[in-house]
């Protein structure tokens, strides 16, 4: 993973960070790095996730999913950190296994998907760390029933990924389902390189070793200086820009397969850093598509936004056929990849020319190793940014509040006092 901070410097952009400020910030990076290393060494909650490239066991994962290795289709049932990592891999990597993610409880969508799937050839990977998340459990019950109605034994087609205990673990034991344990100390949004993201990847036939190798590439580069560790360079620069007014960070990969990566990043950034009145709002964008929608705002709107560009240095390319149509002949000398790269360079330069901060992240190509680098790299960047901001990166109490309110409304057992806030809503109706 390569990071270029040039367009974040105050000589280019406002807000921007001076080279001298980065040098001073590097002392804080050294302190934060020590804290992170201590957390990793003691496998503390959250920090333990940065050990996954060395602790995940790809062979055990492959062995556990073996009963569904013949699947033609895969449904991942999960939400948030229990879906977005696997969804990112599925979006980016080719597989013969058609992969679908049920991470919402829209009945029309769920019904349409189940109606279309070849259920007897379909594998289910139901994923919930807590084993209690209402959306995931509800969707799983619906999927199960669809299999039963079609006369397909769902117990033969299901792999469960969950924590040590909980309702989903109980259900798996009752039906003797293959179960993968979510490792201790790994919050959902940091779990893609564990059983949470890798079970689906294994069913799809992705190269787990290369994914973990990508993670190791970045892990090995972590050091006490942002000038030596690309992941820290990114984390420290976003922190510096945020504290200087860039409260929005638009993630804009220039690769169609990385569209879901921007979604994954949005959860990582929002849930980890949005605390104590702090945080940088993540925005999902896609190059070149969103040049034609969002870019106007980023170049000419309020000076509160930084852009993060991600691009692979190599891609499988395709020539643009020659044409003699007036004004279009220049396209015939190019490839689609060259056009996309030109759009990328032009957009980056256009923001810099307007004094708008942006950072470039590159990988060699969108493959398992490159994805391992991008995923682990942003996790390490996020942990560093959390240290610099002084927030508790690994909790999400605000999300838990809403989960409790929804469960209370549905009449779940237990005291969900948050549900009362729904009744107490302030109303000013206009009809
Ligand atoms: O894996 P689960 O326990 O089902 O949790 C799924 C998701 O639930 C909540 O929304 C949390 O805020 C997320 O961080 C978590 O990833």
From TrEMBL:
This is Probable glucose-6-phosphate isomerase. Its EC number is 5.3.1.9. It is an enzyme of class 5 (isomerase). Keywords: Cytoplasm, Gluconeogenesis, Glycolysis, Isomerase. The gene is pgi. PANTHER family: GLUCOSE-6-PHOSPHATE ISOMERASE. It comes from the Archaea. It catalyses: alpha-D-glucose 6-phosphate = beta-D-fructose 6-phosphate. It is found in: Cytoplasm. Transmembrane segments: none annotated. One of its GO terms (biological process) is glucose 6-phosphate metabolic process. InterPro entries: G6P_Isomerase (IPR001672), Phosphoglucose_isomerase_CS (IPR018189), SIS_dom (IPR001347), SIS_dom_sf (IPR046348), SIS_PGI_1 (IPR035476), SIS_PGI_2 (IPR035482). Belongs to the GPI family. Pathway: Carbohydrate biosynthesis; gluconeogenesis; Carbohydrate degradation; glycolysis; D-glyceraldehyde 3-phosphate and glycerone phosphate from D-glucose: step 2/4. Catalyzes the reversible isomerization of glucose-6-phosphate to fructose-6-phosphate. GO terms for cellular component: cytosol. PROSITE patterns: P_GLUCOSE_ISOMERASE_1, P_GLUCOSE_ISOMERASE_3, SIS. One of its GO terms (molecular function) is monosaccharide binding. The keyword Isomerase applies. The active site is at 271 (proton donor), 292, 403.
């Amino acid at each position: 993973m390569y990071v270029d901070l040039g367009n974040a410097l105050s000589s280019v952009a406002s807000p921007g960070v001076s080279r001298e400020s980065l040098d001073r910030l590097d002392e804080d990076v050294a302190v934060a790095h020590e804290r992170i290393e201590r957390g990793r060494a003691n496998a503390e909650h959250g920090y333990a996730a940065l050990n996954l490239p060395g602790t995940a066991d790809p062979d055990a994962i492959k062995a556990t999913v073996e009963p569904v290795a013949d699947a033609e289709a895969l449904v991942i049932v999960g939400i948030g950190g229990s879906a977005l990592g696997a969804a990112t891999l599925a979006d980016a990597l080719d597989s013969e296994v058609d992969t679908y993610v049920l991470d919402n409880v829209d009945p029309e969508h769920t019904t349409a998907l189940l109606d279309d799937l070849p259920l007897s050839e379909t594998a289910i990977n139901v994923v919930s760390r807590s084993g209690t998340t209402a959306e995931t459990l509800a969707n799983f019950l619906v999927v199960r029933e669809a299999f039963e109605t079609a006369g397909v034994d769902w117990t033969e087609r299901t792999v469960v990924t969950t924590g040590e205990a909980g309702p989903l673990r109980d259900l798996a034991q009752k039906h003797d389902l293959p179960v993968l344990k979510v490792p201790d100390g790994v919050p959902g949004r940091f779990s893609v390189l564990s059983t949470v993201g890798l079970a689906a990847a294994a069913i799809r036939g992705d190269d787990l070793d290369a994914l973990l190798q990508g993670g190791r590439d970045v892990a090995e580069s972590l050091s006490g200086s942002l000038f030596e560790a690309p992941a820290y360079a990114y984390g420290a620069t976003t922190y510096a820009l945020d504290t200087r007014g860039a409260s929005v960070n638009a993630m804009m990969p220039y690769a169609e397969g990385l569209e879901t990566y921007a979604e994954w990043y949005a959860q990582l950034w929002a849930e980890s850093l949005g605390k104590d009145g702090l945080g940088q709002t993540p925005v999902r964008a896609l190059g070149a598509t969103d040049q034609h929608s969002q870019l106007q705002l980023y170049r000419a709107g309020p000076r509160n936004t930084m852009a993060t560009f991600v691009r692979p240095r190599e891609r499988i390319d395709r020539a643009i056929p020659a044409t003699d149509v007036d004004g279009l002949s220049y396209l015939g000398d190019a490839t689609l990849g060259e056009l996309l790269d030109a759009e990328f360079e032009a957009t980056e330069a256009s923001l810099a020319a307007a004094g708008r901060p942006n950072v470039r992240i590159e990988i060699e190509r969108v493959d398992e190793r490159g994805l391992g680098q991008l995923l682990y790299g942003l996790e390490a960047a996020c942990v560093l940014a959390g240290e610099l901001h002084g927030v508790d990166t690994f909790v999400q109490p605000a999300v838990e509040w809403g989960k409790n309110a929804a469960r209370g409304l549905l009449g779940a057992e237990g005291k969900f006092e948050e549900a009362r806030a729904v009744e107490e809503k302030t109303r000013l109706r206009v009809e």
